[in-house]
């Protein structure tokens, strides 16, 4: 009787855990097109299959062809695959947590369900938790192969990589570590092989050529390497230090567990060390994901700390035998639990996050959606297709664009409008301007605009994010745009550029080179015309180390103008070497048109005289003090002559 009662309790507890995970992952939830920066890149990478875009060449981004696993964007060609993989993730996370303790008990899955139900858990952290659970399950009995969790874990890990590339380092480390442990215990090392095979298979099923998988990984690494230096922003330092303290306490807990395992069982000592190492890698990646861009992203780090605490508790269950370690684990989970809600809801609405109603509604809705899909999959897909069409109409009404007789790209991060207006949208590799944050990525875009896939039209406007200089928006390519394209229309606050029938000659003249220093004014050439400036800002060894473990200090550029005014902008060192037009100041479409006209004599433009670079925080030790500077003038005569032949410029007048 007791055995059946225990089994029944385990089933009910596992069912509760299943409902929680189902509500969090929500594999049957899909959304349509929306306006905005983030919704735009979500739409672009999700539409890749239907438009024949290749990840790794046509699209270079941190999201992959299965990004709808966490963005929930509906794309009919991949919806069923994303839905099925979402179900696999739900089942895998539920079963691995339920079977994590050595003894079959209903208490742990119930406790895990309660924690995950009330904690502010993000899908990003759950995706990172997939390989962590694979390691925790496998290292329980490192001398045996659990074929179910081996297959399900590597499949779910592969799906995580193709959904969001930040899972890649965790999956790679986990697979290498588990294969090393397998070899030590005379088992076949299959984790890395299976994960790679599943990646290639899912890559193909999502409409990509498996031969492009290596390019996808290489280009995603290229984007990720420069992310910390380019996309980092600061947040509340107290939040960062509290997280680090909690993570340090958890790390000590893992180290103590590893040391105890080494002493207690020499046969399993490698597995004990491997478990602690995997936990540390998981938290390190979560730390970078949460605090490099220290805004709402920090919720990823807090969620990951909760997940790490839950998984660790499962490996130590029952905790009653290890009271002190249980207290430490519980304290870490509670700190992460509370901090996550404070970050999400603020101090005034912290109790809002403890309301289980939204999660319950999500779980019940997922069950209803699953029933509808199983009963009539065709009708279910058609319903979502029609809802997506309606979302297209809303975006098109809010952001109308003219019909064009050729392919087009857009520099401002409003690509949703391109898709909603059903233009022949042909994105550059980095998709949005702020992600062109290194010279190799800028070069990819340059080759795109000079190659056979170059669009006939470009919607153009200056402006970027995070206080960057407005001319940094694909700034290195502005001379190329001026040479290959000509203005033909104004569309809202943008300029519509069309490919010139006869491209102009090279506009950038020979460079003047000099050496500047951090925190000292660098004088620009006298303003006889536009100036293209490139800055070779080299990180020191300490700077490279900071970028690896966290993020380098932010750098700003103070610009002094001839009228006595000053402006300060953020500058990205990894982009600065490719250059941008610094004189005159171009911060609007009108000012860009004045530049493109080549007639700057009577224009009321701001002309910089000096720039000064500041590195915040530990900047003096993170960057070399000497900066190689090059100034190149632009040939405005060629622009002026081209503008004289332009119908657009004959009728255009600057805004008053």
Task: Compute the separation of the termini in Å.
Answer: 87 Å
Determine the structural class based on helices, strands and strand pairing.
alpha+beta
Poorly predicted runs: none
Shape: globular
Query: What percent of the residues sit in helical stretches (DSSP H or I)?
Result: 40-55%
Count the beta strands: 12
Record the SSE blueprint.
Blueprint: H1 2-25, H2 37-46, H3 48-51, H4 68-71, H5 76-98, H6 107-118, H7 123-138, H8 147-163, H9 168-184, H10 191-205, H11 213-225, H12 227-231, H13 237-264, H14 269-291, H15 298-316, H16 323-345, H17 357-375, H18 377-398, E1 408-410, H19 415-420, H20 439-450, E2 457-460, H21 478-484, E3 485-491, E4 494-499, E5 512-517, E6 522-523, E7 531-536, H22 541-549, E8 555-561, E9 566-571, H23 573-576, E10 580-583, H24 589-597, E11 608-615, H25 619-622, E12 626-633, H26 636-644, H27 647-651
Parallel strand pairs: 1-2
Antiparallel strand pairs: 2-4, 3-4, 5-12, 6-11, 7-10, 7-12, 8-9, 8-11
Describe this structure as you would to a colleague.
The chain is α+β, with helices and mostly antiparallel strands and 656 residues long. The chain has two domains: 2-30 and 62-359, no CATH class; 512-651, Jelly Rolls (Sandwich). It is 55% helix and 10% strand. It has helices at 2-25, 37-46, 48-51, 68-71, 76-98, 107-118, 123-138, 147-163, 168-184, 191-205, 213-225, 227-231, 237-264, 269-291, 298-316, 323-345, 357-375, 377-398, 415-420, 439-450, 478-484, 541-549, 573-576, 589-597, 619-622, 636-644, 647-651; strands at residues 408-410, 457-460, 485-491, 494-499, 512-517, 522-523, 531-536, 555-561, 566-571, 580-583, 608-615, 626-633. The strands form three sheets. A four-stranded mixed beta sheet has the order 1-2-4-3. A four-stranded antiparallel beta sheet has the order 5-12-7-10, with no helix packed on it. The longest helix is centred in the middle third of the chain and has 28 residues, at 237-264. The radius of gyration is 27 Å and the shape is globular. The N and C termini lie far apart (87 Å).
């Amino acid at each position: 009787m007791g055995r059946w009662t225990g089994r029944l309790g385990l089933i009910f507890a596992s069912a509760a855990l299943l409902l929680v995970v189902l509500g969090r992952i929500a594999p049957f939830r899909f959304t349509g097109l929306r306006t905005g920066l983030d919704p735009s890149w979500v739409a672009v990478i999700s539409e890749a299959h239907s438009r024949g875009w290749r990840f790794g060449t046509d699209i270079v981004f941190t999201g992959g062809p299965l990004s709808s696993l966490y963005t929930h964007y509906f794309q009919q060609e991949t919806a069923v695959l994303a839905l099925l993989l979402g179900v696999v993730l739900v089942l895998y996370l539920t079963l691995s947590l339920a079977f994590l303790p050595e003894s079959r008990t209903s208490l742990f899955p119930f406790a895990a369900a309660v924690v995950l139900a009330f904690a502010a858990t993000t899908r990003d952290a759950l995706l990172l938790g997939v390989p962590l659970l694979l390691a925790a399950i496998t290292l329980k009995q490192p001398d045996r192969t659990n074929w179910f969790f081996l297959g399900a874990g590597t499949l779910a890990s592969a799906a995580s990589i193709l959904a969001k590339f930040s899972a890649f380092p965790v999956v790679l480390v986990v697979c290498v570590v588990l294969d090393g442990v397998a070899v030590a215990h005379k088992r076949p090392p299959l984790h890395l092989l299976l994960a790679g095979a599943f990646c290639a298979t899912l890559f193909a099923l999502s409409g990509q050529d498996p031969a492009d998988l290596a390019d996808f990984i290489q280009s995603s690494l290229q984007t990720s390497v420069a992310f910390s230096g380019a996309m980092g922003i600061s947040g509340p330092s107290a939040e960062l230090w509290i997280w680090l303290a909690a993570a340090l306490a958890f790390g000590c807990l893992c180290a103590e567990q590893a040391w105890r395992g080494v002493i207690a069982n020499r046969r399993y000592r490698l597995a004990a060390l491997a478990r602690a190492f995997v936990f540390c890698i998981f938290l390190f990646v979560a730390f970078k994901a949460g605090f490099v861009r220290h805004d709402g992203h920090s919720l990823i780090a807090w969620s990951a700390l909760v997940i790490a605490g839950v998984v660790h508790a499962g490996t130590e269950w029952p905790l009653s035998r290890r009271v002190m370690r249980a207290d430490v684990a519980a304290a870490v989970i509670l700190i992460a639990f509370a901090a996550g809600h404070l970050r999400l809801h603020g101090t005034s609405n912290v109790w809002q996050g403890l309301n289980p109603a939204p999660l319950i509604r999500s779980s019940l809705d997922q069950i209803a959606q699953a029933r509808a899909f199983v009963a009539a999959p065709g009708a279910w897909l058609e319903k979502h297709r029609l809802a997506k069409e309606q979302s297209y109409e809303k975006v098109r009404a809010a952001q109308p664009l003219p019909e064009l007789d050729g392919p087009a790209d857009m520099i401002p991060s409003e690509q949703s409008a391109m898709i909603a207006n059903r233009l022949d949208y042909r994105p550059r590799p980095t998709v949005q301007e702020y992600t062109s944050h290194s010279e190799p990525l800028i070069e990819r875009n340059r080759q795109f605009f000079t190659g056979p896939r170059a669009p006939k039209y470009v919607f153009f406007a200056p402006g970027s994010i995070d206080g960057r200089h407005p001319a940094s928006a694909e700034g290195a390519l502005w001379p190329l745009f001026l040479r290959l394209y000509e203005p033909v229309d104004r569309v809202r606050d943008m300029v519509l550029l069309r490919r010139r029938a006869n491209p102009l000659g090279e506009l950038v003249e020979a460079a003047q080179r000099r050496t500047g220093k951090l925190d000292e004014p660098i004088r620009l050439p006298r303003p006889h015309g536009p100036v293209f400036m490139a800055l070779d800002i080299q990180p020191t060894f300490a700077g490279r180390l900071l970028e690896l473990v966290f993020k380098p200090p932010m750098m700003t550029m103070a610009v002094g103008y001839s009228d006595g005014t000053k402006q300060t902008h953020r500058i990205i060192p990894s982009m600065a070497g490719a250059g941008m037009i610094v004189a005159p100041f171009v911060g609007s479409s009108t000012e860009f048109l004045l530049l493109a006209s080549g007639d700057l004599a009577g224009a009321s433009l701001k002309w910089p005289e000096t720039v000064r670079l500041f590195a915040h925080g530990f900047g003096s030790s993170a960057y070399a003090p000497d900066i190689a500077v090059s100034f190149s003038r632009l040939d405005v005569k060629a622009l002026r002559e081209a503008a004289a032949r332009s119908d657009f410029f004959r009728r255009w007048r600057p805004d008053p």
